[in-house]
Predict the structure.
Amino acid sequence: MVEMVRRGATLREAARRFDVDHVTVAKWVARAEDQRLDRVDWSDRPSGPRAPHNRVSCAAEELVLDVRRELHESSDLGEFGARAIRDALVARGVASPPSVRTIGRILGRRGALDGRVRVRRPPPPRGWHLPDLAARRAELDSFDVVEDLVIEGGEHVDVLTGVSFHGGMTAAWPMHRVPAVAVVETLVNHWREAGLPTYAQFDNDRRFQGPQRWPDSVGRVTRACLGLGVCVVFAPPREHGFQNDVERFNSLWQQKVWRRFRHPDLAGLCARSRRYVEASRHRHAARIDAAPPRRPFPNTWRLDLQRHPSGRVVFLRRTDDEGRVSFNAREFDVDPRWVRRLVRCDVDLDAGRVRFFGLRRAEPNVQSLLRETPYSIPRRMFWEWRSHPPR
């Protein structure tokens, strides 16, 4: 382009010839000036001066590093961060010392920061705490309760909610109260229609786990699930992640059903909730069909609360400072080296034992057996505490 202009062509002619803007041609002609073309610096560079006017000089950067080194070795307070360095520069009478943020950038650019960057590891696969669930060989139903909703006029409402893990089959049952008796009746009717899952997961609410007033007590909901051959899983207290599916559905139900419409009474709320659940199941029909198969509900089954519990119960717990866990109002020593970590307490009531498996999110496929100890439920009559303890 420059050579063509020097031969007498105009800027616009050169621009049309090389299919560029005439401003571009003018830029390179000005860059070449009167120099020989083989001596022109053709490298592209941004407009403006080569170095910003506010750039800290190398001498100032070296001074910042020297002050940091001195503070690290001799400071009485033991502080040698960006603010302490600037205070030291001001105390020395340095003219126009860099700001605290500039000093922090200098330390980061020169590799003089002691802080460790948090390593972001990928999350474990869904259902990793139960290997057969993560491998899609089993299905799990999670249940929870939305509490303290009030219909206009003062009618109190609680909602028992549920969602399947692989199929995403949702369910919601609004009622005035959700006691353990209503939970059992609702789950039985739901499983008669949908089939039995391998696992039923709950939080540690007393209506699910039962009142823990005496050691080794088994609540009504747990007895009903074990009687149907469903393994009961209790999520760890005050832990996030294990009940995410049902908690997400709780939020969605409140947004799409509870807050969206004005409900005259409980019957109207139930009708609206039923329509939403049916629409949700219709949307996820393909996913529900692709989920692991469920067992048919036994036609001759009857709830027998006096039957001695048998089957499998899983407690997800986190060990304390001594490597112990507690469930069913008992404490168990697991491993003094496995402190403040997740443990899967696998209670086998038929074999009379409990096995403790260590869980680590960083290595979800490695679930080593930490300890195995005998454990059994004493044979006694089921009694639901109401006002007086049993004699």
Summary: Residues 387-391 have pLDDT under 50 and may be disordered. Residues 58-109 form one domain.
